[in-house]
Design a protein that fits this description.
single chain; 441 residues; Aminopeptidase; 13 helices
Length: 441
């Protein structure tokens, strides 16, 4: 019923909270139902947002109801959640009967938190230079394609990686996407790591060599370059999530790209209709420039009436989770998602999670989301699409801004999981013993 303000927590209190984070949830799964409160997110006068722990929230239904206030849910604990909210939305939560405890600012001086500075991560310009350098180093293995431009005109690129890179061969294709949410910079580092690792590994590592001989891999290092630049290039983190596209009739800026996909868009209380919300779904499906660029690229991979991309990972942070569809319904199966489909998702997802220590689960086990890339990939194109929520497991590892010292460790942590997905990409149903039923020629 009240908002409690606390100063810096003791190390012991931080440890207790860290132990409680059995089900941490990062930015990807953040959802918000339509709300009518005013918002000016993205403008100079935008309200200050802080993190709060909200107690007495234990079930997916309760979390979905909480998200209806328009807050961003950052972590899911056993009997509470951590949210990012401005003062107005915090008061709305308090009026619902919840107690909020303001968490200390995620700054290096706080001691309980370990965070980074923007200079510890590749900027958009540095990322572009790094990608170009790697591609030039492996000209027979990699080729860069500009697949479109952001709202502000920056290039969105896809790098093809395959042993016969100049030829569109009849091989299963795998897609990795990164940086959909601006503040999730560790995911862009994941893309750079993967390019380097697969370039160096080809001809040296038997599994990488076989996969690049038998698959065509596409890597999109930054889906949301405008948001990345806005969040990082001022020299101080801005905690920005959306793209930078203005919203007509309001001073609010930006659409949540991961609520803007044309499958069950806005259907089920899993996104916000308020342009000021961090989970604003946009004015229409694919209204965000960057959503349409990536969607058009996926559609371009339909050859002879058949989608060539068979498997996909969308990298996000934070929470150390592996998620699969559907997000729009609590049900394990639904029209277009059979029990065998679900079992293949879960089996491969669980194997990947065993390799990197993440927690595997259906997205809606956390709470409802709609208009997400995973649901669209599977629901429209039949692509086995996962979200990886990367390090850390909680705000006490740096939240959206973990220290640069963890980049090498945490990107390498996903090497095995990526190879597991690629190895299954020719027939995901092999994982449940039904290759003959689904994959025989």
């Amino acid at each position: 019923m009240r908002i409690t303000k606390r100063g810096k927590r003791t190390t012991t209190a931080a440890a207790i909270l860290s132990l409680a984070l059995a089900l941490p949830l990062g930015a990807q799964a953040t959802a918000s139902s339509p709300d009518t409160s005013p918002g000016t997110s993205g403008t100079a006068a935008a309200p200050v947002e802080r993190q709060y722990e909200v107690t007495g929230v234990s079930t997916a239904e309760e979390r979905t109801a909480l998200a209806a206030t328009g807050v961003s849910i950052d972590e899911v604990l056993h009997h509470s959640v951590v949210v990012t909210a401005d003062e107005a939305r915090a008061k709305r939560i308090a009026k619902l009967g919840h107690e909020l405890t303001e968490l200390p600012s995620a700054a290096p001086a706080e001691g309980d938190f370990t965070t980074s500075s923007p200079s510890q991560y590749h900027s958009y310009a540095q990322m572009t230079a790094a990608v170009d350098s790697i591609v030039q180093q492996y000209p027979n293995l990699m080729r860069k394609r500009v697949i479109g431009r952001s709202h502000q005109g920056r290039e969105i690129v896809a790098i093809k990686v395959s042993n016969n890179v100049g030829v569109d061969e009849n091989k299963p294709e795998v897609l990795f996407t990164h940086g959909m949410h601006a503040r999730e910079h560790l995911t862009v580092e994941q893309a750079i790591y993967t390019l380097r690792e697969f370039g160096q590994g080809y001809g040296q590592d038997s599994r990488i060599t076989r996969m690049l001989n038998e698959r065509e891999l596409w890597i999109v290092p930054s889906v949301n370059p405008d948001g990345k630049v806005y969040d990082q290039d001022s020299g101080s983190w801005r905690n920005w999530r959306k793209n930078r596209q203005p919203n007509s009739g309001t001073t609010a800026v930006g659409t949540d790209i991961n609520r803007n996909w044309n499958y069950r868009w806005g259907c089920c209380g899993g996104s916000s209709g308020n342009p000021g919300s961090a989970t604003y779904r946009g004015s229409a499906p694919e209204s965000a420039t960057e959503t349409k660029v990536l969607a058009d690229f996926v559609r371009s991979r339909v050859v002879g009436g058949e989608q060539q991309i068979t498997a996909h990972i969308d990298f996000h942070s934070y929470s150390e989770l592996i998620l699969w569809p559907f997000g729009y319904t609590y049900n394990d199966t639904a029209p277009g998602l059979t029990r065998d489909d679900r079992d293949a998702f879960a089996t491969v997802g669980t194997r990947m999670a065993a390799s990197n220590g993440y927690r595997p689960q259906q997205s809606s086990d956390l709470y409802i989301t709609d208009g997400s890339i995973n649901d669209w990939m599977w629901g429209v194109h039949g692509i086995f699409s996962y979200t990886f929520e990367m390090y850390p497991g909680s705000a006490y590892g740096g939240g959206f801004y973990p220290p640069g010292s963890v980049i090498n460790r945490e990107t390498a942590r996903n090497r095995e999981a990526m190879l597991i997905l690629m190895e299954n990409a020719d027939c995901m149903y092999r994982s449940i013993g039904k290759e003959t039923q689904y994959c025989s020629n």
